[in-house]
Target: RNA 2',3'-cyclic phosphodiesterase
Amino acid sequence: MKTQRLFFGIALPESLQQQLVRWRAEAFPADVGRPIAAANLHLTLAFLGEVSDEKSQILQQQAARIRQAGFTLALDDAGHWPRPGVVWLGCQRPPRGLLQLANLLRSQAARHGCQQSPQPFHPHVTLLRNVTRSMALPPRDFHWRCQVDHFSLFASVFEQGRTRYRQLARWSLDA
Ligand code: 2AM
Model:
């Protein structure tokens, strides 16, 4: 049976991806961790894992029925999780619409056997991986914002030694 590694997420606008990469280059020494490529900077709403085409179709039909308003994403927080070795950007106060959307997608995924992390959902954009030693974070003197008017289903594709996220489908949020 053919499966793909899938997740629902929010793609960041390209201009914001570029700003984040420029800030990261100034804020972190070059030898800290593995930087995520600009085009891969995103916010995961619900991780699905390896999913068959049949299950993917069902989850896409359910995603298409979601009616929810868009929201503003403010990236004004940062942190380091030493165990997974992740440096991330997030929101001091995640918008209610973001939490509602993620909760809905996560519960739909769980109902179809895609096991969800028992940890509470903590919306974040992973900036660096493999950062396992403790480190001082740069001052939180940033406040990036973007309007979120759609969400997407992505396949995580590993080819030629690199991971890239291919958008399979996208759905609009209400204006
Ligand atoms: P991360 O950035 O916090 O590592 C594609 O791999 C996306 O799915 C990434 O954003 C990653 O989150 C998330 N992801 C990968 N494996 C996961 C897992 N087992 N549980 C939850 N999210 C996961």
Q: What stands out?
A: Residues 7, 44, 47, 86, 117, 126, 156 surround adenosine-2'-monophosphate (CB under 6 Å). The two ends are 39 Å apart (CA to CA).
